[in-house]
TrEMBL record, chain A:
Taxonomic path: Eukaryota, Fungi, Dikarya, Ascomycota, Pezizomycotina
Pfam family name, one: COQ9
Originating organism: Apiospora phragmitis
Keyword Transit peptide recorded: yes
InterPro entries tied to this protein: COQ9_C, Ubiq_biosynth_COQ9
Name recorded for this polypeptide: Ubiquinone biosynthesis protein
Domain COQ9 C-terminal: 184-252
From TrEMBL, chain B:
Annotated Basic and acidic residues bias: 31-41
Name this polypeptide is given: 2-methoxy-6-polyprenyl-1,4-benzoquinol methylase, mitochondrial
Ranges where the record places region Disordered: 28-51
Subunit structure of this chain's protein: Component of a multi-subunit COQ enzyme complex, composed of at least COQ3, COQ4, COQ5, COQ6, COQ7 and COQ9.
Functional note: Methyltransferase required for the conversion of 2-polyprenyl-6-methoxy-1,4-benzoquinol (DDMQH2) to 2-polyprenyl-3-methyl-6-methoxy-1,4-benzoquinol (DMQH2).
Reaction catalyzed: a 2-methoxy-6-(all-trans-polyprenyl)benzene-1,4-diol + S-adenosyl-L-methionine = a 5-methoxy-2-methyl-3-(all-trans-polyprenyl)benzene-1,4-diol + S-adenosyl-L-homocysteine + H(+)
Species assigned in the record: Apiospora phragmitis
Top enzyme category: transferase
SUPFAM superfamilies for this protein: S-adenosyl-L-methionine-dependent methyltransferases
Amino acid sequence: MAPTRAFATRLASAAATTTTKSTRSPLTTTACLRDSTSRRAYHSYDHPPPPGAFNTAERQILSAAYRHVPEHGFTHKALSLGARDAGYLDISTNVVPEGPFSLIKYHLVSKREALAPRCAEIFNAPVGGAADGATADAAAGARGQLLTVPERVERLTWERLLANQDVIHRWQEALAVMAQPSRVPASLHELALLADEIHHLAGDVAVDPSWYTKRASLSTIYASSELYMTNDRSAGFEDTRTFLRRRLDETGSLAGALGSIGQWVGFTASAGLNVLRSKGARI
Amino acid sequence: MAARSCLRASPILSTAVAHGLSAPPFSPDILHLHPPTEPRRPISASRMVSPRKKKTERVAGVFHSVAESYDRMNDLMSFGWHRIWKDHFVSSLNPGASSSNPPKPQRILDIAGGTGDIAFRMLHNAHVLNSNPDVHVTISDINTSMLSVGKSRSEALPASQQMALSFLPADATALPDAIADSSIDLYTVAFGIRNFSNIPAALREAYRVLKPGGVFACLEFSKVGNPLLNAAYKRWSFSGIPMIGQLVAGDRDSYQYLVESIERFPSQEAFRDMIVDAGFVVGGDGYENLTGGIAAIHKGMKPLKPSS
Protein backbone atom coordinates (compact mmCIF):
# COMPACT_ATOMS: atom_id res chain seq x y z
CA MET A 1 0.00 0.00 0.00
CA ALA A 2 2.79 2.38 0.78
CA PRO A 3 4.33 2.27 -2.67
CA THR A 4 0.89 2.62 -4.15
CA ARG A 5 0.35 5.79 -2.20
CA ALA A 6 3.69 7.16 -3.22
CA PHE A 7 3.00 6.39 -6.85
CA ALA A 8 -0.43 7.92 -6.65
CA THR A 9 1.06 11.05 -5.18
CA ARG A 10 3.60 11.29 -7.92
CA LEU A 11 0.95 10.87 -10.55
CA ALA A 12 -1.24 13.34 -8.80
CA SER A 13 1.55 15.87 -8.87
CA ALA A 14 1.86 15.32 -12.62
CA ALA A 15 -1.76 16.32 -12.92
CA ALA A 16 -1.42 19.22 -10.54
CA THR A 17 -1.01 21.79 -13.30
CA THR A 18 -4.49 21.14 -14.50
CA THR A 19 -5.80 20.97 -10.97
CA THR A 20 -4.41 24.37 -10.17
CA LYS A 21 -5.96 25.73 -13.33
CA SER A 22 -9.31 24.36 -12.38
CA THR A 23 -9.51 26.48 -9.24
CA ARG A 24 -10.49 29.37 -11.46
CA SER A 25 -13.96 28.12 -12.15
CA PRO A 26 -16.37 27.72 -9.25
CA LEU A 27 -18.02 24.90 -11.12
CA THR A 28 -14.89 22.83 -11.26
CA THR A 29 -13.92 23.50 -7.69
CA THR A 30 -16.68 21.12 -6.75
CA ALA A 31 -14.59 18.65 -8.70
CA CYS A 32 -15.85 15.56 -10.28
CA LEU A 33 -14.34 13.35 -7.64
CA ARG A 34 -14.40 13.06 -3.98
CA ASP A 35 -10.65 13.06 -3.42
CA SER A 36 -9.95 15.83 -5.83
CA THR A 37 -10.20 18.53 -3.21
CA SER A 38 -7.85 16.84 -0.81
CA ARG A 39 -5.45 16.22 -3.67
CA ARG A 40 -5.38 19.88 -4.54
CA ALA A 41 -4.99 20.90 -0.93
CA TYR A 42 -2.16 18.48 -0.49
CA HIS A 43 -0.31 19.92 -3.41
CA SER A 44 -0.92 23.51 -2.59
CA TYR A 45 0.29 23.05 0.98
CA ASP A 46 3.21 20.73 0.62
CA HIS A 47 4.48 21.09 -2.89
CA PRO A 48 4.89 23.95 -5.27
CA PRO A 49 3.11 23.13 -8.51
CA PRO A 50 5.51 21.11 -10.66
CA PRO A 51 6.89 22.81 -13.75
CA GLY A 52 5.10 21.83 -16.91
CA ALA A 53 6.59 19.32 -19.29
CA PHE A 54 7.69 22.11 -21.62
CA ASN A 55 9.20 25.51 -21.01
CA THR A 56 7.82 28.71 -22.52
CA ALA A 57 9.86 28.71 -25.71
CA GLU A 58 9.16 25.04 -26.35
CA ARG A 59 5.47 25.55 -25.69
CA GLN A 60 5.33 28.51 -28.09
CA ILE A 61 6.97 26.56 -30.89
CA LEU A 62 5.11 23.31 -30.23
CA SER A 63 1.68 24.86 -29.92
CA ALA A 64 2.22 26.77 -33.16
CA ALA A 65 3.61 23.65 -34.83
CA TYR A 66 0.70 21.55 -33.61
CA ARG A 67 -1.63 23.57 -35.80
CA HIS A 68 0.32 22.36 -38.84
CA VAL A 69 0.09 18.71 -37.88
CA PRO A 70 -3.15 17.90 -39.73
CA GLU A 71 -1.51 19.07 -42.94
CA HIS A 72 2.13 18.12 -42.49
CA GLY A 73 2.02 15.38 -39.89
CA PHE A 74 4.28 15.02 -36.88
CA THR A 75 7.33 16.09 -38.87
CA HIS A 76 10.22 18.48 -38.82
CA LYS A 77 8.38 20.51 -41.45
CA ALA A 78 5.50 21.16 -39.06
CA LEU A 79 7.98 22.15 -36.33
CA SER A 80 9.76 24.50 -38.67
CA LEU A 81 6.51 26.15 -39.75
CA GLY A 82 5.51 26.44 -36.10
CA ALA A 83 8.79 28.11 -35.21
CA ARG A 84 8.21 30.58 -38.01
CA ASP A 85 4.66 31.30 -36.85
CA ALA A 86 5.87 31.87 -33.30
CA GLY A 87 8.42 34.41 -34.52
CA TYR A 88 11.48 32.19 -34.28
CA LEU A 89 14.09 31.18 -36.86
CA ASP A 90 14.17 27.90 -38.77
CA ILE A 91 17.13 26.80 -36.70
CA SER A 92 15.24 27.49 -33.44
CA THR A 93 13.51 24.12 -33.73
CA ASN A 94 16.68 22.79 -32.09
CA VAL A 95 15.41 24.02 -28.74
CA VAL A 96 12.77 21.30 -28.91
CA PRO A 97 14.89 18.46 -27.63
CA GLU A 98 13.48 15.48 -29.48
CA GLY A 99 12.19 17.08 -32.65
CA PRO A 100 9.08 15.41 -34.07
CA PHE A 101 8.79 13.13 -31.02
CA SER A 102 8.44 16.20 -28.85
CA LEU A 103 5.54 17.24 -31.04
CA ILE A 104 3.90 13.88 -30.41
CA LYS A 105 4.58 14.23 -26.70
CA TYR A 106 3.02 17.67 -26.79
CA HIS A 107 -0.14 16.14 -28.21
CA LEU A 108 -0.18 13.42 -25.54
CA VAL A 109 0.52 15.74 -22.63
CA SER A 110 -1.84 18.53 -23.66
CA LYS A 111 -4.70 16.13 -24.35
CA ARG A 112 -4.14 14.35 -21.05
CA GLU A 113 -4.10 17.64 -19.18
CA ALA A 114 -7.29 18.68 -20.96
CA LEU A 115 -9.09 15.66 -19.51
CA ALA A 116 -9.53 17.10 -16.01
CA PRO A 117 -11.46 20.21 -17.10
CA ARG A 118 -13.39 18.06 -19.56
CA CYS A 119 -14.22 15.63 -16.78
CA ALA A 120 -15.56 18.47 -14.69
CA GLU A 121 -17.67 19.57 -17.63
CA ILE A 122 -19.14 16.16 -18.31
CA PHE A 123 -19.89 14.98 -14.81
CA ASN A 124 -20.54 18.25 -13.02
CA ALA A 125 -22.61 20.10 -15.54
CA PRO A 126 -26.10 20.56 -14.14
CA VAL A 127 -27.98 18.44 -16.61
CA GLY A 128 -31.76 18.89 -16.65
CA GLY A 129 -32.71 15.31 -15.89
CA ALA A 130 -30.24 14.82 -13.08
CA ALA A 131 -30.62 18.15 -11.36
CA ASP A 132 -33.49 18.44 -8.95
CA GLY A 133 -33.46 22.22 -8.83
CA ALA A 134 -30.81 22.34 -6.13
CA THR A 135 -27.35 23.84 -6.44
CA ALA A 136 -24.79 22.77 -8.97
CA ASP A 137 -23.08 20.85 -6.20
CA ALA A 138 -26.09 18.73 -5.55
CA ALA A 139 -26.53 18.18 -9.25
CA ALA A 140 -22.95 17.14 -9.51
CA GLY A 141 -23.31 14.76 -6.63
CA ALA A 142 -26.49 13.34 -8.06
CA ARG A 143 -25.04 12.90 -11.50
CA GLY A 144 -21.77 11.59 -10.19
CA GLN A 145 -23.63 8.92 -8.26
CA LEU A 146 -25.59 7.91 -11.30
CA LEU A 147 -22.47 6.60 -12.97
CA THR A 148 -20.39 3.78 -11.60
CA VAL A 149 -16.63 3.96 -11.74
CA PRO A 150 -16.35 1.65 -14.78
CA GLU A 151 -18.92 3.75 -16.59
CA ARG A 152 -16.97 6.88 -15.92
CA VAL A 153 -13.77 5.17 -17.02
CA GLU A 154 -15.47 4.29 -20.28
CA ARG A 155 -16.72 7.82 -20.76
CA LEU A 156 -13.36 9.44 -20.03
CA THR A 157 -11.47 7.00 -22.23
CA TRP A 158 -13.87 7.82 -25.02
CA GLU A 159 -13.33 11.55 -24.47
CA ARG A 160 -9.60 11.03 -24.67
CA LEU A 161 -9.96 9.05 -27.89
CA LEU A 162 -12.12 11.77 -29.37
CA ALA A 163 -9.35 14.27 -28.67
CA ASN A 164 -7.35 12.40 -31.32
CA GLN A 165 -9.81 13.03 -34.10
CA ASP A 166 -8.11 16.09 -35.58
CA VAL A 167 -4.84 14.26 -36.09
CA ILE A 168 -6.13 10.72 -36.46
CA HIS A 169 -5.10 10.54 -40.12
CA ARG A 170 -1.53 11.26 -39.00
CA TRP A 171 -1.62 9.08 -35.93
CA GLN A 172 -0.23 5.94 -37.53
CA GLU A 173 2.97 7.86 -38.33
CA ALA A 174 3.08 9.05 -34.74
CA LEU A 175 2.60 5.51 -33.43
CA ALA A 176 5.48 4.39 -35.65
CA VAL A 177 7.72 7.05 -34.13
CA MET A 178 6.57 6.14 -30.63
CA ALA A 179 7.37 2.48 -31.27
CA GLN A 180 11.03 3.19 -32.07
CA PRO A 181 13.10 1.44 -29.42
CA SER A 182 14.60 4.62 -27.99
CA ARG A 183 11.14 6.22 -27.73
CA VAL A 184 9.31 3.25 -26.22
CA PRO A 185 10.01 4.03 -22.53
CA ALA A 186 8.79 7.63 -22.84
CA SER A 187 5.73 6.51 -24.79
CA LEU A 188 4.82 3.84 -22.24
CA HIS A 189 5.31 6.31 -19.42
CA GLU A 190 2.87 8.70 -21.07
CA LEU A 191 0.39 5.84 -21.53
CA ALA A 192 0.70 4.93 -17.84
CA LEU A 193 0.10 8.53 -16.85
CA LEU A 194 -3.00 8.61 -19.01
CA ALA A 195 -4.40 5.39 -17.56
CA ASP A 196 -3.82 6.72 -14.07
CA GLU A 197 -5.35 10.07 -14.88
CA ILE A 198 -8.48 8.38 -16.21
CA HIS A 199 -8.84 6.16 -13.17
CA HIS A 200 -8.18 9.04 -10.86
CA LEU A 201 -10.73 11.28 -12.58
CA ALA A 202 -13.21 8.42 -12.58
CA GLY A 203 -13.01 8.39 -8.82
CA ASP A 204 -11.28 5.07 -8.39
CA VAL A 205 -9.77 5.09 -4.92
CA ALA A 206 -8.85 1.42 -4.59
CA VAL A 207 -5.38 0.93 -3.18
CA ASP A 208 -5.24 -2.87 -3.31
CA PRO A 209 -3.28 -4.79 -5.96
CA SER A 210 -6.11 -4.12 -8.39
CA TRP A 211 -4.62 -0.62 -8.60
CA TYR A 212 -2.02 -2.09 -10.91
CA THR A 213 -4.19 -4.48 -12.88
CA LYS A 214 -6.80 -1.83 -13.57
CA ARG A 215 -4.26 0.56 -14.96
CA ALA A 216 -2.46 -2.11 -16.93
CA SER A 217 -5.68 -3.33 -18.51
CA LEU A 218 -6.87 0.18 -19.29
CA SER A 219 -3.52 0.97 -20.91
CA THR A 220 -3.84 -2.07 -23.15
CA ILE A 221 -7.42 -1.27 -24.02
CA TYR A 222 -6.67 2.35 -24.73
CA ALA A 223 -3.73 1.51 -26.96
CA SER A 224 -5.68 -1.05 -28.95
CA SER A 225 -8.70 1.24 -29.28
CA GLU A 226 -6.44 3.97 -30.56
CA LEU A 227 -5.01 1.61 -33.13
CA TYR A 228 -8.53 0.57 -34.12
CA MET A 229 -9.49 4.22 -34.42
CA THR A 230 -6.77 4.95 -36.98
CA ASN A 231 -8.62 2.69 -39.41
CA ASP A 232 -12.13 3.62 -38.35
CA ARG A 233 -14.11 5.30 -41.11
CA SER A 234 -17.52 5.18 -39.40
CA ALA A 235 -19.39 8.38 -38.66
CA GLY A 236 -18.35 9.86 -35.33
CA PHE A 237 -16.05 6.87 -34.77
CA GLU A 238 -19.01 4.80 -33.56
CA ASP A 239 -17.19 1.56 -34.36
CA THR A 240 -14.34 2.61 -32.11
CA ARG A 241 -16.73 3.28 -29.28
CA THR A 242 -18.35 -0.14 -29.56
CA PHE A 243 -14.89 -1.68 -29.80
CA LEU A 244 -13.88 0.15 -26.64
CA ARG A 245 -17.03 -0.97 -24.82
CA ARG A 246 -16.53 -4.61 -25.82
CA ARG A 247 -12.96 -4.56 -24.54
CA LEU A 248 -13.94 -2.94 -21.25
CA ASP A 249 -16.81 -5.41 -20.78
CA GLU A 250 -14.46 -8.30 -21.43
CA THR A 251 -12.09 -7.00 -18.79
CA GLY A 252 -14.98 -6.53 -16.41
CA SER A 253 -16.25 -10.07 -16.90
CA LEU A 254 -12.73 -11.46 -16.76
CA ALA A 255 -12.10 -9.61 -13.52
CA GLY A 256 -15.44 -10.91 -12.23
CA ALA A 257 -14.58 -14.46 -13.21
CA LEU A 258 -11.16 -14.25 -11.63
CA GLY A 259 -12.71 -12.83 -8.48
CA SER A 260 -15.22 -15.68 -8.35
CA ILE A 261 -12.53 -18.27 -8.89
CA GLY A 262 -10.49 -16.70 -6.11
CA GLN A 263 -13.45 -16.76 -3.81
CA TRP A 264 -14.18 -20.38 -4.61
CA VAL A 265 -10.56 -21.41 -4.06
CA GLY A 266 -10.47 -19.56 -0.77
CA PHE A 267 -13.69 -21.08 0.43
CA THR A 268 -12.70 -24.60 -0.59
CA ALA A 269 -9.32 -24.30 1.04
CA SER A 270 -10.65 -23.09 4.36
CA ALA A 271 -13.42 -25.70 4.27
CA GLY A 272 -10.86 -28.40 3.58
CA LEU A 273 -8.76 -27.12 6.44
CA ASN A 274 -11.72 -27.29 8.77
CA VAL A 275 -12.53 -30.83 7.66
CA LEU A 276 -8.97 -31.85 8.49
CA ARG A 277 -9.15 -30.12 11.84
CA SER A 278 -12.40 -31.89 12.63
CA LYS A 279 -10.55 -35.15 12.00
CA GLY A 280 -8.04 -34.21 14.71
CA ALA A 281 -5.21 -32.88 12.53
CA ARG A 282 -3.22 -30.34 14.50
CA ILE A 283 -3.30 -27.47 12.01
CA MET B 1 42.01 34.33 -23.38
CA ALA B 2 40.94 31.26 -25.16
CA ALA B 3 44.00 29.29 -24.45
CA ARG B 4 43.47 26.41 -26.75
CA SER B 5 46.41 24.21 -26.75
CA CYS B 6 46.39 22.87 -30.16
CA LEU B 7 48.61 21.32 -32.56
CA ARG B 8 47.02 19.37 -35.18
CA ALA B 9 47.36 18.01 -38.60
CA SER B 10 49.72 19.42 -41.11
CA PRO B 11 48.82 20.43 -44.61
CA ILE B 12 49.46 16.96 -45.84
CA LEU B 13 46.01 16.80 -46.98
CA SER B 14 46.10 15.89 -50.60
CA THR B 15 45.15 12.35 -49.65
CA ALA B 16 42.63 13.30 -47.05
CA VAL B 17 40.75 15.62 -49.33
CA ALA B 18 40.42 12.91 -51.89
CA HIS B 19 37.63 11.46 -49.77
CA GLY B 20 35.29 14.08 -51.08
CA LEU B 21 31.98 14.85 -49.57
CA SER B 22 30.32 11.57 -48.95
CA ALA B 23 32.99 10.93 -46.38
CA PRO B 24 34.08 14.36 -45.28
CA PRO B 25 37.80 14.58 -44.81
CA PHE B 26 38.48 13.83 -41.24
CA SER B 27 40.67 16.06 -39.23
CA PRO B 28 41.90 15.34 -35.77
CA ASP B 29 40.12 18.02 -33.87
CA ILE B 30 39.18 15.75 -31.02
CA LEU B 31 42.65 16.56 -29.97
CA HIS B 32 43.58 19.94 -28.78
CA LEU B 33 46.93 19.28 -27.37
CA HIS B 34 49.75 21.11 -25.85
CA PRO B 35 53.04 20.83 -27.65
CA PRO B 36 55.02 17.76 -26.85
CA THR B 37 58.22 19.76 -26.71
CA GLU B 38 57.13 21.04 -23.34
CA PRO B 39 58.00 18.76 -20.45
CA ARG B 40 55.05 17.16 -18.80
CA ARG B 41 53.84 18.70 -15.63
CA PRO B 42 50.62 18.63 -13.67
CA ILE B 43 47.79 20.54 -15.29
CA SER B 44 47.73 23.96 -13.77
CA ALA B 45 46.09 27.28 -14.32
CA SER B 46 49.36 28.71 -15.53
CA ARG B 47 49.19 26.60 -18.62
CA MET B 48 45.71 27.80 -19.42
CA VAL B 49 46.58 31.46 -19.12
CA SER B 50 49.95 31.38 -20.82
CA PRO B 51 50.25 34.18 -23.35
CA ARG B 52 48.63 33.41 -26.62
CA LYS B 53 51.56 34.59 -28.67
CA LYS B 54 53.92 32.25 -26.98
CA LYS B 55 51.47 29.42 -27.40
CA THR B 56 51.04 30.14 -31.09
CA GLU B 57 54.76 30.06 -31.58
CA ARG B 58 55.02 26.82 -29.71
CA VAL B 59 52.25 25.32 -31.73
CA ALA B 60 53.80 26.46 -34.98
CA GLY B 61 57.08 24.96 -33.92
CA VAL B 62 55.73 21.52 -33.40
CA PHE B 63 53.06 21.71 -35.98
CA HIS B 64 54.63 19.56 -38.64
CA SER B 65 56.32 17.08 -36.46
CA VAL B 66 53.29 15.30 -35.12
CA ALA B 67 50.75 16.04 -37.77
CA GLU B 68 50.45 12.82 -39.64
CA SER B 69 49.58 10.70 -36.69
CA TYR B 70 46.45 12.55 -35.72
CA ASP B 71 43.94 10.99 -38.03
CA ARG B 72 45.14 7.62 -36.95
CA MET B 73 45.17 8.66 -33.30
CA ASN B 74 41.60 9.87 -33.24
CA ASP B 75 40.39 6.66 -34.79
CA LEU B 76 42.43 4.56 -32.42
CA MET B 77 41.41 6.45 -29.31
CA SER B 78 37.71 6.58 -30.02
CA PHE B 79 37.45 3.40 -32.09
CA GLY B 80 36.18 5.57 -34.92
CA TRP B 81 33.20 6.78 -32.91
CA HIS B 82 34.15 10.43 -33.23
CA ARG B 83 32.93 10.35 -36.82
CA ILE B 84 29.55 9.07 -35.70
CA TRP B 85 29.34 11.73 -33.00
CA LYS B 86 30.13 14.46 -35.51
CA ASP B 87 27.68 13.11 -38.07
CA HIS B 88 24.98 12.91 -35.43
CA PHE B 89 25.77 16.38 -34.15
CA VAL B 90 25.37 17.92 -37.58
CA SER B 91 22.33 15.93 -38.62
CA SER B 92 20.55 16.68 -35.35
CA LEU B 93 21.16 20.40 -35.91
CA ASN B 94 19.91 20.03 -39.47
CA PRO B 95 21.42 23.27 -40.77
CA GLY B 96 19.83 24.68 -43.88
CA ALA B 97 16.40 23.21 -43.23
CA SER B 98 13.80 25.83 -43.97
CA SER B 99 10.05 25.82 -44.10
CA SER B 100 9.86 28.53 -46.73
CA ASN B 101 10.38 28.38 -50.46
CA PRO B 102 12.90 29.60 -51.50
CA PRO B 103 14.74 28.59 -48.32
CA LYS B 104 15.91 31.31 -45.97
CA PRO B 105 19.62 32.09 -45.81
CA GLN B 106 21.52 31.04 -42.71
CA ARG B 107 24.82 32.17 -41.27
CA ILE B 108 26.76 29.62 -39.28
CA LEU B 109 29.81 30.26 -37.12
CA ASP B 110 31.95 27.22 -36.41
CA ILE B 111 34.25 28.03 -33.52
CA ALA B 112 37.46 26.05 -32.98
CA GLY B 113 36.67 24.38 -36.26
CA GLY B 114 40.03 24.95 -37.90
CA THR B 115 40.19 21.73 -39.81
CA GLY B 116 36.65 22.01 -41.10
CA ASP B 117 35.33 18.70 -39.84
CA ILE B 118 32.06 20.14 -38.65
CA ALA B 119 31.87 22.95 -41.18
CA PHE B 120 32.17 20.63 -44.19
CA ARG B 121 29.51 18.34 -42.80
CA MET B 122 27.21 21.29 -42.23
CA LEU B 123 27.73 22.55 -45.77
CA HIS B 124 26.93 19.11 -47.09
CA ASN B 125 23.82 18.90 -44.94
CA ALA B 126 22.63 22.36 -45.96
CA HIS B 127 23.58 22.47 -49.64
CA VAL B 128 23.04 18.88 -50.67
CA LEU B 129 20.51 17.35 -48.29
CA ASN B 130 18.42 20.45 -47.66
CA SER B 131 19.08 22.08 -51.06
CA ASN B 132 19.69 25.43 -49.43
CA PRO B 133 22.61 27.16 -51.16
CA ASP B 134 22.20 30.29 -49.04
CA VAL B 135 23.96 28.81 -46.04
CA HIS B 136 27.27 30.42 -45.24
CA VAL B 137 29.73 28.94 -42.78
CA THR B 138 32.51 30.90 -41.10
CA ILE B 139 35.22 28.72 -39.70
CA SER B 140 36.94 30.39 -36.81
CA ASP B 141 39.97 29.24 -34.92
CA ILE B 142 42.47 30.95 -32.69
CA ASN B 143 45.21 29.06 -34.45
CA THR B 144 46.02 30.24 -37.97
CA SER B 145 47.89 27.04 -38.71
CA MET B 146 44.71 25.11 -38.09
CA LEU B 147 42.83 27.40 -40.40
CA SER B 148 45.35 26.79 -43.15
CA VAL B 149 44.70 23.09 -42.76
CA GLY B 150 40.99 23.72 -43.17
CA LYS B 151 41.64 25.94 -46.16
CA SER B 152 43.64 23.36 -48.01
CA ARG B 153 41.12 20.66 -47.19
CA SER B 154 38.28 22.82 -48.43
CA GLU B 155 39.83 22.88 -51.88
CA ALA B 156 38.34 19.45 -52.44
CA LEU B 157 34.82 20.74 -51.91
CA PRO B 158 32.56 21.68 -54.83
CA ALA B 159 33.03 25.29 -55.89
CA SER B 160 29.62 26.34 -54.60
CA GLN B 161 30.49 25.10 -51.15
CA GLN B 162 33.90 26.74 -51.24
CA MET B 163 32.15 30.00 -52.02
CA ALA B 164 30.02 29.57 -48.92
CA LEU B 165 33.02 29.17 -46.64
CA SER B 166 35.13 31.79 -44.98
CA PHE B 167 37.95 31.60 -42.49
CA LEU B 168 38.47 33.88 -39.55
CA PRO B 169 41.29 33.71 -37.03
CA ALA B 170 39.65 34.82 -33.80
CA ASP B 171 39.61 34.36 -30.07
CA ALA B 172 36.26 32.86 -29.09
CA THR B 173 36.14 34.85 -25.87
CA ALA B 174 36.46 38.16 -27.75
CA LEU B 175 35.17 37.81 -31.26
CA PRO B 176 36.23 40.56 -33.68
CA ASP B 177 33.93 43.25 -35.02
CA ALA B 178 33.74 41.36 -38.30
CA ILE B 179 31.03 39.36 -36.57
CA ALA B 180 28.28 41.80 -35.70
CA ASP B 181 25.87 41.48 -32.81
CA SER B 182 22.83 39.34 -33.54
CA SER B 183 24.10 38.22 -36.92
CA ILE B 184 24.52 34.45 -36.57
CA ASP B 185 21.87 31.73 -36.86
CA LEU B 186 23.92 28.85 -35.54
CA TYR B 187 27.05 28.83 -33.39
CA THR B 188 28.81 25.50 -33.12
CA VAL B 189 31.84 24.36 -31.22
CA ALA B 190 32.94 20.74 -31.34
CA PHE B 191 35.61 19.38 -29.03
CA GLY B 192 36.98 22.85 -28.45
CA ILE B 193 35.21 24.53 -25.60
CA ARG B 194 36.93 22.57 -22.88
CA ASN B 195 40.20 24.22 -23.93
CA PHE B 196 38.86 27.73 -23.59
CA SER B 197 40.37 29.45 -20.60
CA ASN B 198 37.20 31.39 -19.89
CA ILE B 199 34.14 29.41 -20.86
CA PRO B 200 31.55 31.87 -19.44
CA ALA B 201 33.11 34.66 -21.49
CA ALA B 202 32.93 32.53 -24.62
CA LEU B 203 29.28 31.76 -23.89
CA ARG B 204 28.54 35.46 -23.46
CA GLU B 205 30.21 36.16 -26.81
CA ALA B 206 28.12 33.43 -28.39
CA TYR B 207 25.01 35.01 -26.90
CA ARG B 208 26.03 38.39 -28.27
CA VAL B 209 26.61 37.34 -31.87
CA LEU B 210 23.59 35.05 -32.15
CA LYS B 211 20.31 36.35 -33.53
CA PRO B 212 17.32 36.10 -31.22
CA GLY B 213 16.13 32.55 -31.84
CA GLY B 214 19.64 31.53 -32.88
CA VAL B 215 21.12 28.34 -31.52
CA PHE B 216 24.30 27.61 -29.61
CA ALA B 217 25.40 24.00 -30.05
CA CYS B 218 28.35 22.29 -28.45
CA LEU B 219 29.76 18.81 -28.87
CA GLU B 220 32.16 17.94 -26.09
CA PHE B 221 33.43 15.11 -23.95
CA SER B 222 31.43 14.69 -20.79
CA LYS B 223 30.78 12.42 -17.83
CA VAL B 224 29.78 8.79 -18.14
CA GLY B 225 26.75 7.84 -16.06
CA ASN B 226 26.94 4.05 -16.03
CA PRO B 227 29.52 3.00 -13.38
CA LEU B 228 30.59 -0.08 -15.30
CA LEU B 229 31.10 1.79 -18.53
CA ASN B 230 32.76 4.57 -16.57
CA ALA B 231 35.28 2.19 -15.01
CA ALA B 232 36.18 0.77 -18.41
CA TYR B 233 36.29 4.24 -19.97
CA LYS B 234 38.51 5.70 -17.24
CA ARG B 235 40.84 2.77 -17.46
CA TRP B 236 41.04 3.20 -21.19
CA SER B 237 41.51 6.95 -21.13
CA PHE B 238 44.11 7.09 -18.39
CA SER B 239 46.13 4.05 -19.39
CA GLY B 240 45.28 3.23 -22.96
CA ILE B 241 45.22 6.63 -24.58
CA PRO B 242 48.58 7.94 -23.29
CA MET B 243 50.11 4.60 -24.22
CA ILE B 244 48.77 4.78 -27.74
CA GLY B 245 49.96 8.36 -27.86
CA GLN B 246 53.40 7.23 -26.98
CA LEU B 247 53.47 4.33 -29.38
CA VAL B 248 51.80 5.90 -32.38
CA ALA B 249 52.50 9.59 -32.04
CA GLY B 250 55.59 9.32 -29.87
CA ASP B 251 54.08 11.87 -27.56
CA ARG B 252 52.70 10.73 -24.23
CA ASP B 253 52.40 14.14 -22.58
CA SER B 254 50.02 15.58 -25.10
CA TYR B 255 47.64 12.69 -24.71
CA GLN B 256 47.95 12.80 -20.97
CA TYR B 257 46.88 16.43 -21.21
CA LEU B 258 43.99 15.41 -23.41
CA VAL B 259 42.51 12.98 -20.92
CA GLU B 260 43.12 15.29 -17.98
CA SER B 261 41.39 18.17 -19.72
CA ILE B 262 38.41 15.89 -20.34
CA GLU B 263 38.40 14.96 -16.66
CA ARG B 264 38.40 18.60 -15.62
CA PHE B 265 35.53 19.63 -17.86
CA PRO B 266 32.24 20.15 -15.97
CA SER B 267 29.49 17.55 -15.97
CA GLN B 268 26.51 17.68 -18.32
CA GLU B 269 24.33 19.42 -15.73
CA ALA B 270 26.98 21.90 -14.64
CA PHE B 271 27.75 22.88 -18.21
CA ARG B 272 24.03 23.13 -18.98
CA ASP B 273 23.70 25.55 -16.04
CA MET B 274 26.57 27.63 -17.43
CA ILE B 275 24.71 27.86 -20.73
CA VAL B 276 21.54 28.91 -18.93
CA ASP B 277 23.49 31.47 -16.89
CA ALA B 278 24.71 33.03 -20.13
CA GLY B 279 21.07 33.77 -20.98
CA PHE B 280 20.20 30.84 -23.23
CA VAL B 281 16.99 28.85 -23.12
CA VAL B 282 17.43 25.10 -23.10
CA GLY B 283 14.78 22.55 -23.94
CA GLY B 284 14.18 19.41 -21.88
CA ASP B 285 17.33 18.34 -20.04
CA GLY B 286 19.40 20.71 -22.15
CA TYR B 287 21.82 18.04 -23.29
CA GLU B 288 21.95 14.76 -25.14
CA ASN B 289 24.37 12.03 -24.14
CA LEU B 290 26.28 10.17 -26.82
CA THR B 291 27.68 6.71 -26.18
CA GLY B 292 26.59 6.68 -22.54
CA GLY B 293 27.87 10.17 -21.82
CA ILE B 294 31.42 9.87 -23.16
CA ALA B 295 30.44 12.83 -25.30
CA ALA B 296 27.43 15.09 -25.00
CA ILE B 297 25.64 17.61 -27.17
CA HIS B 298 24.44 20.76 -25.45
CA LYS B 299 22.08 23.13 -27.19
CA GLY B 300 20.78 26.50 -26.13
CA MET B 301 18.65 29.05 -27.88
CA LYS B 302 18.92 32.81 -27.52
CA PRO B 303 15.42 33.85 -26.48
CA LEU B 304 13.47 36.41 -28.48
CA LYS B 305 13.30 38.69 -25.47
CA PRO B 306 16.19 38.59 -23.02
CA SER B 307 15.08 37.35 -19.64
CA SER B 308 15.61 39.97 -16.99
